[in-house]
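User: Sequence in, structure out. Go.
Assistant: Echoing your sequence, followed by the structure tokens.
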Amino acid sequence: MSFTGASDRSVPATKIEITVSCRNLLDLDTFSKSDPMVVLFTQTRASQEWREFGRTEVIDNTLNPDFLRKFVLDYFFEEKQNLRFDVYNVDSKTNISKPDFLGQAFLALGEVIGGQGSRVERPLTGIPGKKCGTILLTAEELSNCRVSSSYLCFPSYCLSSLLGNTSSKVALPRSLLSQLPSHPFKRCKLASVWGQIVLPFPSSVSHSQDIATMQLCANKLDKKDFFGKSDPFLVFYRSNEDGTFTICHKTEVVKNTLNPVWQPFTIPVRALCNGDYDRTVKIDVYDWDRDGSHDFIGEFTTSYRELTKAQSQFTVYEVLNPRKKCKKKKYVNSGTVTLLSFTVDSEFTFVDYIKGGTQLNFTVAIDFTASNGNPLQPTSLHYMSPYQLSAYAMALKAVGEIIQDYDSDKLFPAYGFGAKVPPEGRISHQFPLNNNSEDPNCAGIEGVLESYFQSLRTVQLYGPTYFAPVINQVARAAAKVSDGSQYYVLLIITDGVISDMTQTKEAIVSASSLPMSIIIVGVGPAMFEAMEELDGDDVRVSSRGRYAERDIVQVAPGGSVASAWFVPFRDYIDRSGNQVLSMARLAKDVLAEIPEQLLSYMRTHDIQPRPAPSASPSPPSLQP
């Protein structure tokens, strides 16, 4: 079954504030310097259309502006968020319909965040034969427990300047009054002062992420299994303003018991209540079934404020099944759930680590077994069509183009497995796609694709399908780094059922204590049910009595956050044939857990982010 109520973006977005400066702009004014302004455009995922997001102010008479107005954007690690910055010279503040074009820059939001100290400098282009200067962008994560992704941001105003305002007030033009009901601070009192709105603002806001840690147990739950008891797990939902619910957490499954004790778990407070401590939190209790048709045991509701009471006392909730309650007059409940402990700590965010210099090292492993079909035939999953990318190439590009923004050298090890390689024709389950065993790195995602296509021309597809060798290869590299400066992400793309499940489980359990995550994407028509054993969302992966320290495997899930079965890449293919949209859908799902997996490793090993490196010196602003 799939759990309904999950929105397209299940966790509120982190807010990123972009500060803009320019250096050495073109001077288009005759008797003075240019009067620059920057316009930000964002690109829609479906149509690839550019839409204006906001504008900076105009600064008079300078070629090196430092703009006060900021752009505040929702940030999703798992999405490619393309940005375009156009710079104009505005001669008249009263008529900006025909400004002079000074240049533009294209880049992704991830490139700004992944830059050294979350800062990047890019050349401005767009005027042939002219050096247009540069644009400097700085990303800063805003308080991420106070603003929901559904709330409106005012891109023309700087939130950081509000925090620095000693009067704790900000003046907004009256034209924005109509938009204030959508603003997170809508409950604040408004006062009219000289044609402006003065909005009281909180005098202090925490910039760290509040993390709740809780542990629950249950007693006398309903028996659902015919030959056993129940295999219970909990699903947490946050209520939305329209009365719907959004899934925000799922516990592990405790097998064959009516009195389960779940392991302690952590969840961002913003995911649980979105900053509203009295917002309803609904918890469903299910009996886990292997085929995904989980049996509903019952439900109960609470709130963040009520959960916090468990810091001083146990809290017991009755689990109620509405259908049973209506049918049975003597029905009392379907058991109880007890909140054993609840603590809240301020923890670092994914952006904190990236800003402090943590690099994401991306490695790809591609299935070259014979079941993929002859690469020269259109029926092959590896077929190199001149008109469109294969499923393998799309999966590789979808994931790689996002992760590469967080790797400064853009060098990616790429391997193949399950083929006979020249010159001896030996079977290899870990051969470098660039045919260089001393240095398997490829330059950028395009370099990986080029090496992949070249390997298809030189190796013989064979078999079987072994994952363990390449997992162990990446694990050996990850084991050499324990200071949090690097985190490894392995993408495995395959078409068939795994042949070394026992060895792969052993490799995953061993790698779970390392700074490493594994993404598995299935392509083609094969059935992949066995792969679900490797995704520890329901039952933690184990081998020889050892359990994985944490869940590090993401097996491409379906549309629901809590899907209980494996869904292959074919389910992401856009019906209209839009490959860009297909790749965006895949990347969004398979990369969604990476930030939390990185944070899980850092928390487990008590690693704090390093201070952001100091900014590189740049020419001083000449603005008055």
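User: And one key feature?
Assistant: The longest strand covers residues 336-347.
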